[in-house]
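Annex B, item 7. Sequence and structure tokens for protein A, then protein B.
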Amino acid sequence: MPVTLDLVQCEDESIFREVFNFFHWVDKTFSTFKKDSEISRYNRREITIRDLSLPMKNIFNLSDKTRRETAGYFNVEKDGKIDPSGIVKGWAILEASKIIKKKGVKNFYVDAGGDIQAEGVNENGLPWKIGIRNPFNRHENVKILKISGGAVATSGTYIRGQHIYDPFAPDKKITDIVSLTVVGKNILDADRFATAAFAMGKKGIGFIETTGFLEGYMIDNKGVATYTSGFNNFMA
């Protein structure tokens, strides 16, 4: 997936190299498409849970925590195998943001596959503007958000197809909604709860409302939008 960094008034190219090297490591470690990745070796039972690296154990713990917080709608296990992609991307973006902050950069954004952590301001001294893509026309945005010190994650079927499933009905496609965007303070929470909420279908936006620390914008299969009570606070 594409990864984009925008570091305002930063000429230290080593930061870019360090962050992109980190994302390469994440892919090498967590990708279920790579036969030699740690997660693939675990799924083939070549290594046990005791053999896992600390980052992998942390992801497993985060996944289990999210499963409990979402009443089982977030579940990384299917057909006896673990696929942590629903939580790894948000975690990786947040960790990349920490790398950048440690270098003293205050104004930046990190975008991986359309999920974004945005800190400080853009080159014009204004909050970052982030669009919510129209799932029926990928060349236009339906909303523009202003984000400073926050994150935006979108789950949907309009790009990758039916890649999210309802753990309580794994063979049934989610067709009542096509896009669900979540806004929060950090991309790890926004991403993991966006995945779980999408798995819930139309009732997912109500779940986001109940969290008390996230806002959401859902588009159903008829193009009708529903959003949480505080979502307008982020509108540009």
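Protein B:
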Amino acid sequence: MNILIIDDDKLVRSGLHFLVQEILTESNTIFEADGVQNGLQAIQLHAPDIVFLDVEMQDGTGFDLLSSLKEVSFQLIFITAHNHYAIRAFEFSAIDFLLKPIDEEHLQRALQRVKRNLHNQQIENQLSILAESLQSLHNHDKKIALRDQESIYFVKVQEIIHCQAQGAYTLFYLESGKQILVSKTLKEYEDLLSPFLFFRVHHAHLINLHKIKQFHKLDNYLLMEAGSEIPVSIRKKDGLLKIIEKL
């Protein structure tokens, strides 16, 4: 397996090179490049399976590099020191990213995911969602990439009816009736989806406020558009009522 690290910081490249060698026990060849132009040349020369790509470099951005390619035929892990706004965009696209300074445990998880997806051809769709997310976090037609053990699904945010905590996983219920189990916590999706009028009404339930059909205030439960009944905790009831009044 060929691995390419593209970053203009030599210390970052060297440290990441060492950590990747430590984590991956099988035989791999690791190449390095220090910017956009050298990175493009290295991609053409080495045909990498996995690319670690810095977001901001001296001669351009990682997005400049990607836009110069006819197709993206490798798995991608971004390296970024960006702010929370940009990190949200990565999370919507389900593209792996590492924050500087790079944490070994986060790197190990990212490598495990991309190795499972080496033959997955969804990276172009993920990059499209990433570009959209970087432009606007409040687009009504915004999509989110939901990744389970076998596939990546590209779902409009407003097609999500509600999300349910399943331990360290989150179960998504969609308008189509489909359910998708994703290996992230409900808290992570609460933070991500709150700007789109999602509200956590219970420790185990995050709902799309647009999808409420009826609120049974005496019995403290919601009837959602798909027919599901969602309990509302006592401590969340007043907050929910205030939000509903503003809709």
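Comment on protein B: The longest helix spans residues 10-23.
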